Amino acid sequence: MERRMVTRKLVFISLLVVALVVMGCTPTTQIVKETVVVEKEKVVKETVVVQSTPQVKEVAKEVVVTATPKPTDAPNSVELNGSGATFPQPLYEDWAFAFNQRDPSVVINYAGGGSGQGIKDIKAGTVDFAGSDALLKDADYQEKPDLQMIPTVAGAVVLAYNIPGVTTTITLDAATIVDIFLGKIEKWNDPRLAALNPEVKFPDLPINVVHRSDGSGTTNIFTLYLSAVSEEWKKGPGAGTAVDWPVDKLGRGQGGKGNPGVAAAIQNTKGAIGYVELAYAKSNNILYAKLINAAGKTVEANIPSTMAAIKDAKFDDRLTAIIVNSKEPDAWPIAGFTYLIVNKDYKDCKKAEKLVSFIKWALTDPAASSRAAKLLYAPLPQEVLPRVVEVLDKITCNGKPVVSQ
Fold first, then answer.
1. Which of 64, 174, 379, 400 is the most exposed place for a label (fewest CB within 10 A)?
2. Does the predicted TM-score (pTM) go above 0.85?
3. What is the fold, at CATH topology level, of the domain defined by 156-335?
4. What pLDDT digit, counting tens, does each position of 179-228 carry?
């Protein structure tokens, strides 16, 4: 059967959002998807409603994330459905397409939606697997002891910005990042920012902070970093998939759904700064800051600096590790692993076989690693791979070992 490569782009279009500013009115976030399918191209239009406090601001610029073609259905194919983290979504979609070319009998769908949604779905049994950058809590394991986290890759979270008149890369340190998100640094021409960037002429412009509005593993990684470098942040907002943002109470914060929503808000808001996964900043040509890490070195987000961050990763018995604020000299300070969440036992043996086969391929095949590198994700440390494969080999179907191809 002849197949043709089809180029597909996921086009996330943030339409104009108009909100009535009424005292006591609470902003809401909605997502409306419209899919238009033509012969050789599929375009997904997504309305991203970006909320802010105390009013909803206007967003009217498209954000483009290039993805891979839709996998090809084969007769009697097995369909695997997943949802969750948008942090690794470009990679998971790319892997899904490539694996389908390798094995046309399996079609893998990944819906995104955020880590919180993925955890909710896998616990409810509505998906075959989930993606999450946030770790399952003890309560999750107690509720669903059948769940298992599988690390896949590591990635960098970057501080992307839109500062009128500034077209160069700025530098930030831990103290300024914390104070921006606490709302203590209010304008771009603050002396502390000027001291870090003497060559940059910052405008006298308010800083608009963009954060996630949904339950987010990217937020978890970012707030783990803020908590690691600031006692005030740790004792205040703290770390998690969702926190109470101090800037919201000051009227200078706004939320976007998913990494695409945050990217859209940054691009469409003068004076904006927000956190997104590196691939989203790169693919949309959004400027992002260099950071001064725990070793006092100014570093740029890329695969080498992410690899440096995972050098001292210590995986626990659940195969999870936290790598923010690494002391390694060349490490990117806001980095994290992303995970697939699977069940230890499945009822559908064909699905279980294909899922285990897919994950093993993704983690051990050079072609899969090459695809990850092109999207700026760093591979797992070689020393942890045997442990991951061992856990995958223990997945069962109706109590019997799964035999993957």
1. 400
2. no
3. D-Maltodextrin-Binding Protein; domain 2 (3.40.190)
4. 999 999 999 999 999 999 999 999 999 999 999 999 999 999 999 999 99
